Fold this protein.
Amino acid sequence: MAWNEPGGGGKDQDPWSNPRRSGKPPNIDEAINRLQKKFGGAMGGAGGAKGIAVVGALLVGVWLLSGIYTIDAGQRGIELQFGKYTDTTTAGPHWHLPYPIGSVIKVNVDEFRDKQLKMSALTNDENIVEVRIGSQFVIADPVKYLFNVRDPDGTLSDVMQSAIREVIGSKKMDNVLTDGRTEIASLVRDRMQEMLNGYDTGLKVQSVNLQDVQPPEAVQPAFEDAIRAREDEQRYISEASAYSNKIIPQARGEAAQIDEQAKGYESKITNLALGEASRFTQLLKSYQMAPDLTRERMYLDTVAGVLAKNKSVVIDSGQSSNVFYLPLGGDQRAAPAAKTPLDPLSLPLPATPSLSDAAGARGSVTSDNRSDLRTRNAP
């Protein structure tokens, strides 16, 4: 039973003395005197005051030692005196005035902190999209982080919402849902940092990730159809590009081949023309030396070339009315029946004209006899 509980057998005594307590409130001075007497008796009478001083010094030393603290790597220590900021400490051991005079707040400035947010936003073409966004940030200035903003996390959420609505509000829905996500995330990060700097929060945005952007559930089927159509478009573009990459080199190869053939034909025709020109030049020189002989030679060569292509030849010696028909090829039924073939070597040769008469003889043949020869040589 406690010393001061009722029913203690009439022995209501305090722990400092045996006499019975009166109904008066305890005297503080009397209690202190009693303590001094007890400590003084325990420490030898007059040395009691000295003992109290030693105990007090020990207590003060322990109190002062309680102000020693250590800051780990990646941390900053924010020292306060009576709640007011005094200093920022880095990694290592430090000391501050102990509680309740001083205190220290440890802040991790290397830790990456995540912030996730899901919200709706309105696009530039007045469509609603569901956005899920995440950001990573660090505490760049712990003093500003602790003292300039009452609720840093809440402020960061508000800044994220404001930035994403501002950026998406400047984009069309197709751009937001397809290939514009990387650009949007970059713009949101820059805009968030501007606003955080304006609020002097001490936060630094490291990255922003636009994790998911979807249209509202009510229009999800139509959106999926649009996505499939866009994928088909990209597939057709890829197929056309592949065909272009295939057919263009093939066409270039064929063009190069045709060009080479044209160059070969050009070389052939050029050489042939040069040969004909050279032959004509030589013939001109011969004609200039002997015009009559050259003309006769050309005439005979021409007649020989023409007669060589005919199937039959009619020879008129001019000395007899008999006409000799020589089948040289083709249908043998057109030739007259004969027991022995006619030997062309047994035919009488016409008299060879002199060079001086060649021109006149050639003229008579070409004017009178040539038409007769064409008539007789007809098959």
Summary: The first helix runs from residue 28 to 42. Residues 220-284 form one domain. The radius of gyration is 63 Å. The mean pLDDT is 75.
